[in-house]
Amino acid sequence: TWKWVVGPMVLYLCERLVRFWRSQQKVVITKVVIHPFKTIELQMMKKGFKMEVGQYIFVKCPAVSKLEWHPFTLTSAPEEDYFSIHVRIVGDWTEGLFNACGCDKQEFQEAWKLPKIAVDGPFGTASEDVFSYETVMLVGAGIGVTPFASVLKSVWYKYCHDATNLKLKKIYFYWLCRDTHAFEWFADLLQSLEAQMQERNNAEFLSYNIYLTGWDESQATHFVVHHEEEKDVITGLKQKTLYGRPNWENEFKTIAGQHPGSRIGVFLCGPEGLADTLNKQSISNSEADPRGVHFIFNKENF
């Protein structure tokens, strides 16, 4: 038995030593942004920190807990001179971080008063392969939308810098959420991308659909009354918010018809049930002919 136990234990101890070493490296919080509905954005800098789109890190705040590490998806792009995470205040640890950063106070918080932060990572995810395809489908469910903040930012930076050498030509983005107000910071990002792409006369580069799954009768009535307005009353985007859940079979068939003979990357960050649905649709809508359309499914679950 000891032969089977010793190997994994050595690997575990090595991993703990690496995490301890990384936790001692200095991390500077450069900016704390308070977003609606108790969501805070921490912008940080760390010497030698390199990231790719959609990656995540483990964060420890000794002022809150000396032992707890929590995973957070990076919402910044590799092209930015900082890395950032968005933290929704939903428990004791996040509440402690919220208070430690002085977000519960009205006055301006001095930088030297901000708590020390330890960071381990970044760690890779399936989202890193986005730039390997000409056409991609990005599907985020609830909090699973956060990896695509990094992806969309990075795509835009690459597009502005050198659009001709960017392999990615078309993005279909789907955001499924029960309550869009909980992620207003992401709607702000979409608004910014929407405006900038229209300025460059390339509004077709990003197609997005926002599905509000937790709607009630009063929301539906509000939607009907304001449907003809230029911008959506919930998100402020030109694309209207849709109610209910998408018909994935129709979505896949439509995209397959618009991109014949293509390899289309399907990226999901969401629950296992949705992963099964998208995987089945990816298989059923891929052609047997190697020259036909093929959907390549990639997922990360939470």
UniProtKB/TrEMBL annotation:
FAD-binding FR-type domain span: 19-129
GO molecular function: metal ion binding; superoxide-generating NAD(P)H oxidase activity
GO BP terms, alphabetized: defense response; monoatomic ion transmembrane transport; superoxide anion generation
Cofactor: FAD
Keywords, alphabetical: Cell membrane, Electron transport, FAD, Flavoprotein, Glycoprotein, Heme, Ion channel, Ion transport, Iron, Isopeptide bond, Membrane, Metal-binding, NADP, Oxidoreductase, Phosphoprotein, Transmembrane, Transmembrane helix, Transport, Ubl conjugation, Voltage-gated channel
Membrane topology designation: Multi-pass membrane protein
Catalytic reactions of this protein: NADPH + 2 O2 = 2 superoxide + NADP(+) + H(+)
Places the protein is found: Cell membrane
Gene3D superfamilies, per database record: Nucleotide-binding domain of ferredoxin-NADP reductase (FNR) module (3.40.50.80), Translation factors (2.40.30.10)
Source taxon at top rank: Eukaryota
Main location per the UniProt record: membrane
InterPro entries given in the database record: Cyt_b245_heavy_chain, FAD-bd_8, FAD-bd_FR_type, Fe_red_NAD-bd_6, FNR_nucleotide-bd, RBOH/FRE, Riboflavin_synthase-like_b-brl
CC per GO annotation: monoatomic ion channel complex; NADPH oxidase complex
Biological role stated in the UniProt entry: Catalytic subunit of the phagocyte NADPH oxidase complex that mediates the transfer of electrons from cytosolic NADPH to O2 to produce the superoxide anion (O2(-)). In the activated complex, electrons are first transferred from NADPH to flavin adenine dinucleotide (FAD) and subsequently transferred via two heme molecules to molecular oxygen, producing superoxide through an outer-sphere reaction.
Protein name (record): NADPH oxidase 2
Organism of derivation: Oceanites oceanicus
Lineage of producing organism: Eukaryota, Metazoa, Chordata, Craniata, Vertebrata
